[in-house]
């Protein structure tokens, strides 16, 4: 039996495993390798999409599935497959459509499996995807609504998001929380 058998470490990425979006410190990579060599299990838990987490974790050893989309997708990067997922309730799509219709400047991203569906891009969405180094692929709302969603992001500049948040509270289904 090895020292860290039956131990699992799961860490966030941004501001935890690394502080610079381009590089994980070498001492962190070495510590992970030592931990795994002594029997430990190591993974990542992130709010990022499968596609954006991939580019960051390629340089580190991970020996179990990764938790992505704020816990809604468990993804095995070695096998390139979803191990498990939790879809958002279907009523979230009606909720998102109401916001889409009322706020034409709101950016809307819906996460589906390995993909980020850009229902509407705005400057905030473009900055977000640039930071995550993900290409923008526009998907019409009706096409996106045909697929299951594991995460929904509605974005705007500060003044716009305040108005969206107030409106959202008046129409929200019981199945969701507003951040």
What does this structure look like?
It is a single chain. The protein is α+β, with helices and mostly antiparallel strands. Helices cover 33% and strands 21% of the residues. The protein is built from six helices and eight strands. It has helices at 26-37, 50-57, 91-102, 123-131, 141-144, 158-171; strands at 8-11, 41-44, 66-68, 73-76, 81-85, 107-112, 115-120, 151-155. A three-stranded antiparallel beta sheet has the order 3-4-5, with no helix packed on it. The protein is elongated. The N and C termini lie far apart (44 Å). The mean pLDDT is 91.
Molecular shape: elongated
Largest sheet: 3 strands, antiparallel
Quaternary structure state of the chains depicted: single chain
Mean pLDDT: 91
Quote the distance from N terminus to C terminus. Answer: 44 Å
Binned, the helix content reads 25-40%
Q: What is the H/E string? A: EHEHEEEHEEHHEH
- Pick out the low-confidence regions: none
Question: Into which percentage range does the β-strand content fall?
Answer: 15-25%
Strand order across the biggest sheet? 3-4-5
Number of helices: 6
The number of strands is: 8
> What is the gyration radius calculated from CA atoms?
18 Å
Derived structural class: alpha+beta
């Amino acid at each position: 039996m090895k020292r860290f058998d039956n131990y699992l470490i799961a860490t966030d990425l941004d501001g935890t495993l690394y502080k610079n979006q381009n590089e994980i410190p070498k001492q962190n990579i070495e510590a992970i390798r030592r931990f795994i060599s002594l029997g430990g299990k190591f993974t990542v838990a992130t709010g990022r999409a499968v596609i954006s987490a991939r580019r960051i974790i390629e340089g580190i050893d991970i020996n179990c599935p990764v938790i992505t989309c704020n816990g809604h997708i468990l993804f095995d990067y070695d096998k390139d497959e979803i191990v498990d997922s939790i879809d958002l309730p279907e009523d979230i799509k009606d909720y998102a459509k109401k916001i889409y219709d009322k706020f034409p400047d709101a950016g809307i991203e819906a996460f589906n499996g390995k993909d980020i569906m850009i229902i509407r891009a705005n400057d905030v969405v473009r900055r977000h995807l640039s930071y995550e180094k993900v290409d923008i692929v526009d998907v019409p709302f009706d096409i996106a609504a045909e697929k299951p969603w594991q995460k929904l992001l509605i974005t705007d500049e500060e003044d716009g998001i305040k108005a969206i948040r107030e409106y959202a509270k008046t129409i929200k289904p019981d199945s969701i929380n507003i951040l």
